[in-house]
Amino acid sequence: MSSVYLDRLSRISALAPARRREPVREALAGDEADRMAVLGAEVGRNRYGEHLIARQWYATPEMCDPCANVLRLLLPAKTTRAGIGIARRSAARNRGISFCRNAEEGSVGPRMDEAAELAADPRKWLFLDIETTGLAGGTGTYAFLVGLAWWDGDGITVEQLFMRDHSEEHSVLLEIARRVLERPVLVTFNGKSFDWPLLETRFRMTRAIESPRVGAHLDMLHPARQLWRLKLGSAKLAELERRVLGAETLGWSRSEDIDSSRIPEFYFDYLRGGPAEPLAGVFRHNRWDLRGLAALAGRIFRALAEPETIETGTEGALEIYGVSRLLDRRGERERACTLYERALEAGLPRSVERTARHELARLAKRQRNYLRAAELWHQLGCRRATGPHLNLRPEGGRGQELDHTPEGGEPSFEACEQLAIHYERRASDPNEAARVSRYALLELRRADRLGLIPPHRHAYFAERFTRRLARLTKKLAQEITDA
Amino acid sequence: MAHSLLPRITIATRSPGAAQGSGTLACVRDVVEQFAARDRTGEIITAVHHIPAREAQWAPMPEWVRPELAAAYREKGVTQLYSHQASAAAAVHAGCNVVVVTPTASGKTLCYNLPLLNQVLENPDARALYLFPTKALAQDQLAELHDLGERLSSSFGVFTYDGDTSADARAAIRDRGHIVLTNPDMLHAGILPHHTRWTRLFENLRYIVLDELHTYRGVFGSHLANVLRRLRRVAAFYGSSPQFIASSATIANPGELARRLTEHEFTAISENGAPAGEKFFMFYNPPVVNRHLGIRRGYIGESSRVAQEFLKRGLQTLVFANSRLHTEVLLTYLQRANPPAVGAAQPVQGYRGGYLPGERRAIERGLRAGGIRGVVSTNALELGIDVGSLDAVVLAGYPGTIASTWQRAGRAGRRSGGSCAVLVASSAPLDQFIVQHPEYFFGGSPEHAFIQPDNLEILVNHLKCAAFELPIGADEKFGGFELAPLCERLEDAGYLHRTAEHWHWTEQAYPADAVSLRAVTSDNFVVVDTTNGSEVIGEVDFASALAAVHPKAIYLHQGQQYQVERMDFAERRAYVKRVSLEYYTDAIRYTQVRVLETAATARIIRTKNNVREPGDEDLPVDAAAERTHGDVLVRSQVVGFKKIKFFTNENLGSGQLELPENEMHTTAFWVTLERTLIESLPFPVRERQNGMHGLLYALESVATLLLMCDRRDIGTAIGERPPSPGLGVEWEEAPAASNLGGANEEREFFEANLYLYDAYPGGIGFSEPLYDAAEVLLARTHELIAACPCEKGCPSCVGAAGDRGDQAKEAALAILARLGAGL
């Protein structure tokens, strides 16, 4: 090769090192047996070759009992047909077109009852959590460590499959396929959007090993988010372990956990002959993730099965509120209603409380409990409990409930509008409706003057209330004339 | 003189109720004649080219077309095909890779839609991928396919897949799209790195359609060639080997370009069977107002006057401007001249990239219905978007290439009746060359499109993407390179890891994200507007950042001027404020070129002795000069800038700058002037030097013409010829050269190298073609300078006289004469 060519290569910026690395080649990596000992793993073999495997049994967490009601909440409500329908509609929105008149529809994934039936047996559960060479996804991201776990006796067995380099990927994938075949119910944390699609990509890349059929997939991220994001501000697994599950319950705390953003780096260093110790930290991190996931699953099942047992107090109130939202979304309105009320009673923080009242009012209206709805709208429409404004207590309303209206809260104009509609249409009280409208206009003007409301919102409501008020005034005048 | 250019046409008798076509023809001729009559000196209308009407060449619908498809086309009014459509469809049907080269509005899309839809109907598993250079074109094509789809009873899916496609629509597209319409950028960053999601598409990929092939040249083309290498690699992984179908505007080497892009052999189909009405093409050079400085009347104003001549006769007119700013200016002029009738819509509209699809459709409809009489557009309307045909097209400024000039002019031309296109020249060298040499434009072939898929910088970036997509096999090929040494380098740098059989990607980052198909490297400067708060308004690639966004530079964005206040080198940011000034800035670079390796070199031989010496006039004579191409190292530093007045290009002053040096390995073409030649020039030392600089300036202009590229794509420098013509890097560094006029040019070169280098790291394939076409390059340069009416040099030929010295023009011509050009 000519010196010019080498010189040219040295100037290619695309060939410049990706990041500063420690000179790992020089580090004494020790022999293979040492490395395996550090990782606590032994060689596994199948027809595609070798890989490393580490297996451990733990007494905690304990197996949870999946009750059918909760499973219904956690599994997808509709079959995949609906999903396709949505996709097609938005494709059309996207100015794309599709002519699928005779196309075969649906049929992807298991049917709901079948999935619930499978998932009802916790011995069919397979906890899954992978460690990857990056978070970007795509065909060049590898799952170098695949953690699996299942209930075993009174505790849980954790099995970790590791590829020492890329050539061991096939044998790792074959093992995964076998495990999934034995236990076709996946339980993951964000596995629906990350872990499983990534593994499916890996299976496809082999062009040899078929991606195993998953009987049901319980992704705990979404319920965890519903239940605790308001409380924690995030829904990271480690955070949930610390603040929801608690170290005492779990029996471990992650005091020496690795910085998970460095995981790919540790693996790349290992590949290039670097030490196994940082990777041992990744193995441990992965085990914690799996056990934490198993514990979290138990906690979520309990919370959803018996929300009544959740302790009250602000944090408990938030959790109850989370359960009610989940129920609400899955169409269990009655239970959702009861729990919304409970959460309100338990005392929600101000911002959440308003949202909760809105949701509750919406449900009450839907269930034709107009009185309760009006009451809630009333509370939401008032700026403060005792103010210079008009007395808006609904006829026969429970006045003392007004104490719940937070001090100094801005009125909800949506609620005022709902309330006006309620008086005009259902309570047939145009006077009250007009009064609410006048009040709302007054409040709008104030909010606008103080810059508390965006101009477009102000314009929108001002126009609506003005129109309503004009109509009501006309109606009232007519009534007087008629009388 | 101009009158004699007018062809003789017998005017059809204007009977009342005559067909609209002949009325238009009369109108067009009226305008053309009037212009010619007004031009007393013959310097303004430099050409009137007459293109006679052409009959359609028909061919029957091929027998293999399925009856339901033929019926669908029949419903659309297509019962037979134009000859080129028939031959293209036949070649596709026969399994050939085909490139169709025909002008605007000749029914190119049918050439691929017909055989592809036929295939989809026969085999519902078959898939096709259409690539369009822009999203708007894909949308346009979608409408056409949608229309066909609705007429067919069987089902097939057509989707666009681009940055706007919503996440939930994507899954359906991947599975059900028989035809997926996308763009190279999306293929590169969205589809290939996720190919496992597109298994169905790749397993059944039968066709790849490359529309507007001629746009894939230079950097963009070099990137696309590599994206297609990756695409073929992924397709092969799924066991398919797709056939390519391309369409292109008229360029000199469509077949070659297609072959270089796809690494497949192509059948080129270039005869055009579509009918056309009679047409005039007129060149309009604004009159000179200052002969001494070579200043002409502003071409934007002239363009609007020309357009108004058509508009006031009720002819539908399309005006093309070369920038958004000029679009807006022209629009203002023309809207003022054509106020809407009471209650009617504005008859003259603007049309450019930023408009929403809805607005565009409304304009297109308005044009077809006739409510809109005039449109002022940027190049947005140049590519295949269907606006119907108009009566007149006015080009405000030369579009830069013969190919796109024809494309734009092709927007005028009803199938019956007459039409007219007018090119209004600016004072830029290229414009002046074209209008003063109409035979070059009308007689010659259009440009070649060049790409360099093996540019290492580009190739390595795509090699990384390829490794991400599929592990690289030990004996795999990617382009013309041995992969092992490159992969080893990538392994050392931490990107790849080698196992027994393959190299695997070992980086967290997603490599496609770091590669922009529109630039060589992605080390960009971000331009931040701090006028109100701070807002990112653009990006400038590293190589041009020093020249474009140095402190005090005027940065133009969407017609708005910004002045650079601060340049943060470490953070790669330039902070700008909105200004309104009458000038723009041109960076003064101090450039050194070091020759690393010569690829080929040859003596320049004069075939005619045009330096007056007695006898032997036809014998070949050694010109004491060489032409060479090879690898060079360019070190450049921006040391200052000039302020240049808009429209007139006058120099208004300059400033000094201290910026870091930039180093680039690239390819260059150069001409060496040996001592004998330099000494034979009858000028003082200083004027000789001026002559060389003037010559280089003109060479650059002509090179951009020959290479179908932008002026920014080529860099120039003059340096001392290295002492020994041997190989390699141990050469002495050439002494400083710069394009700074005056002061540093006192010392004379012993022997000078005039360099034209590719302004991109690694080169994008301009040097070798320039080397091969050196004779043409010199000849055209001579024509450009000799025909320029200025006295002592102007921005249209050798550069402004004030910058160059009084004899620069003369000296440049003398050098060219000694190189055998001219006469």
Verbal overview:
The complex is a heterodimer of chains A (483) and B (823). By secondary structure, chain A is α/β, with parallel strands linked by helices. Chain A folds into three domains: 27-91 and 106-301, Nucleotidyltransferase, domain 5, CATH 3.30.420; 307-368; 371-483, no CATH class. Helix content of chain A is 54%, strand content 11%. Chain A is built from 19 helices and eight strands. Chain A has a seven-stranded mixed β-sheet, sandwiched between helices. In chain A, strand 5 and strand 6 (155-162) form a beta hairpin. Chain A is elongated, with a radius of gyration of 30 Å. The N and C termini of chain A lie far apart (107 Å). The model of chain A is unreliable at 79-109 and 385-408 (pLDDT under 50). Chain B is of the alpha/beta class and 823 residues long. Chain B folds into five domains: 2-10 and 20-51 and 276-339 and 346-443, P-loop containing nucleotide triphosphate hydrolases (Rossmann fold, 3-Layer(aba) Sandwich), CATH 3.40.50.300; 58-269, P-loop containing nucleotide triphosphate hydrolases (Rossmann fold), CATH 3.40.50.300; 456-514; 524-581, no CATH class; 588-818, no CATH class. Helices cover 34% and strands 25% of the residues of chain B. Chain B is built from 26 helices and 33 strands. In chain B, the strands form seven sheets. Chain B has a seven-stranded mixed β-sheet with strand order 1-11-18-17-14-16-15, sandwiched between helices. In chain B, helix 4 runs parallel beside helix 5 and helix 10 runs parallel beside helix 18. The two termini of chain B are 23 Å apart. The model of chain B is unreliable at 1-21 and 725-745 (pLDDT under 50). Classes of the chains: A alpha/beta (483), B alpha/beta (823). Strand 3 of chain A pairs antiparallel with strand 6 of chain B.
